[in-house]
Structures are given as structure tokens and as C-alpha cells.
# Entry
Amino acid sequence: MSTTTLSVIEMVRGFSDYMNRVAYRGERFVVMKGRKPIAEISPITAGRLLGELEAVLQSLPRLTPAEAESFAADLDAARATLPGQGLS
# Structure
């Protein structure tokens, strides 16, 4: 996504609009004071979208049956050593 450059005055006059554009459209802005960039306003990265879950799961390595059994045994051992910790 491209970055738009704004003056401080433009940002102040349209603050709410620019914040909505960042929040809902994912736009980015560089705020300039004179000819000097002083701030960048951009969305906070919050992780991945639910729609990407299938692709993420497909990208994970596959366990062999022996690895899956070993992993299950490790989980059981961890649960046994941490009783009452809400692990289930």
C-alpha cells in the first residue's frame, strides 16, 4: 500500500477522517512539518485474518505418525507436571 504525505495542518483539520482511513482502509500517512517528515501514521499489525487460516495451516510441516505420538506423549507429560494449571 502506498503512503500519502500530509502537512500538519491537513492532519489536524481532517484528523478524524485520517484516523478512520487508517483504521478501516489500512492507509498510511507521513505527516510533514515544513519539508521535514515528523511522524508516520499507520495501522497496527494485529496478526492474520481469519480468511488466511487455511493457508497458514497448510504451510505448517506435517508430522509423521511417530512424531505425532511423541508430541502427544510430551503434552501428556507436561499436563501431569502442571496439575491444576488449567491445561487440558
